[in-house]
C-alpha cells in the first residue's frame, strides 16, 4: 500500500486513483495509483521540451510541473514520476517530495484539535510519508551515486531538494529511510582519498554533500556517519576540509552534547590545519563551538590551540610583512579578532569563578588581542572596537583599566575614520557597562578628543549616541555636571554644530528631518550660547517657511526647544510670534 488511504483519513481528501481512472482506466486493489510507463512518456511533451530541461533552461517550478496536468495532487504526480525511466523526471520527483511532505503535515496540523487526535493524525501522516519514501527510494538512489557526473544545474537541484526532504521529515522512521538514501550520497566523500584531488566543480558538490551530512548528523548520529564525518575532516582537498570545519560549527549548535563527545577533537585538529583556508573556516565557527560545549573543556582544549595559531600568525606576519588587506592571512586575523569576544564571553561565568587559576590563558588571550589593535588591516582594527563591549562584559568593569583601557584609547586615536566611527558606535554599551564613575575617570578625555574629531561623520555618530552616553557620563551633582559639560563640550560646539546645520540645509528633506531629530537629542545645557541661536535660528526659520510640512514641523520643534532653554530668546517678541504662527 502506498498510503493513499492514510492520507484520506488525515486530510479528508481522496488522493487515490479518482483522477487516474480517466487517464488509463486502472488502479491497484489496495487503492494504489498505477500508471503505464508508456503513457507517462507520452505525457512528457515534445522532445524539445525535454531538451530544454537538459540544457538547464527550466527553473525548479517548471521542472516540478513538467507536462503534468494541473488538477493532479502532489501524491498522484509522485506516482506518475516513479514509473518513469527518464532521469529528468526523477529530478522532478525530487522537487515534488518536500512539497508533498509539507502538505501532509499542514493538513495534519489543521485537523488535530486535541491530544488524542493529534497523536492519531501524526501517526497516520507519518505512515503516509514513510510509504511514499519507500516507493521512491530506488529513484533517489539511482540519482545520487552519479551526481558528480551530472550537469551543474542538475546537481544543484538534486542537492537542494535532498536537503529540503531531510528538513521536512519529522520522525526517526522517515529519517532512517532518508539516511539510507543519503549514505549513498555521502559514501562518495569516504572514498575521496582514493582518486586524488577533485576539480573545482566537484569540490562545490562535495561542499553541498557535507552540508547535507551535517544536517543528518544533527538528528541521526549513527556510528557509520560519525566515522564518515571524521574521515571528511582529513580529506585530501583543502576546500573539503574547510567546508567540514564550517559545518562542525553548525553541528555544535544543533547537538552540543554529541558534538562535544564525538567531534570536538576533530574541530581542534582543523584549527591546527596547515592550510590557512581550513584554519579560517574553523575560527569562523569558534564562537558557536564556545557557546555549545562546556566552558571548562573549551578553555582547556580549544582556547590554547586557537591562541597558539593566532600567535604564530601574528609573529610570522611581523617577520615577513605580508599581512596585506586582501591576503588570506588578513582574513584569518579578522576572523580571529571577531571570534575572540564570543569565545571569552562564552566562558564568562567560568572565568569569574576561577579568574586567578586561569590567569595565564586569559593573559594570552588578551595578548592575542594586542596585535589586532595595531594590525595594518583596517577591518581588523574595526573588529577590535566592535567586540570591546563584549570584552568589558566578560572581564567585568573592575578589570577594564588593567586589561582594556590602553587598547580602547589607542583605537579611539586611530588614523582611520572607520575605526574611530566604530569606537563611537561602541561607546554607548561600554558606558552602560562601566557606570558613571569609571566613565568619568577613564573615558572623559577620549570623548572630548572624539568631539573635536576632524571628521564630521565621527562627530555625527557621537552626537547621535550622546543621549545614552550622557546619562552614564555625568554625576548627580548639578554643579559638577555643568562644570563637566563646560570643560568637555563648550570648546567643541563650533565643530559639533556645522555638520548638523549644513546637512539640514543641503540634503533631502527626509534626511533633514532626521538631522533635526538628532539635533534635538543634544543636552539642553548646550543651548545657552549665543552663537547657537545666531547659527540655528536663521536656518530653522528658512526651513519653516520653505520646507515640506514634516520638515516645517520638525524645524519648529527644534527652534522651540532652543528658545525654551535660552533666556535671551524668550524675550524676543518677534521670534516668539514667528514660532507661534507655525
UniProtKB/TrEMBL annotation:
Please give the InterPro entries that the UniProt record associates with this protein.
ARM-like, ARM-type_fold, HEAT_type_2, PPP4R4
Low complexity composition-biased segments: 27-42
**Repeat (HEAT) residue spans along the chain:** 263-301
Query: By its UniProt entry, which PROSITE patterns does this protein fall under?
Result: HEAT_REPEAT (PS50077)
Sequence segments annotated as region (Disordered): 1-65
**What is the superkingdom listed in this entry's lineage?**
Eukaryota
Compositionally biased spans, kind Basic and acidic residues: 11-26, 49-64
Q: By what name is this protein known?
A: Serine/threonine-protein phosphatase 2A 65 kDa regulatory subunit A beta isoform
Tell me which species this is from.
Answer: Hondaea fermentalgiana
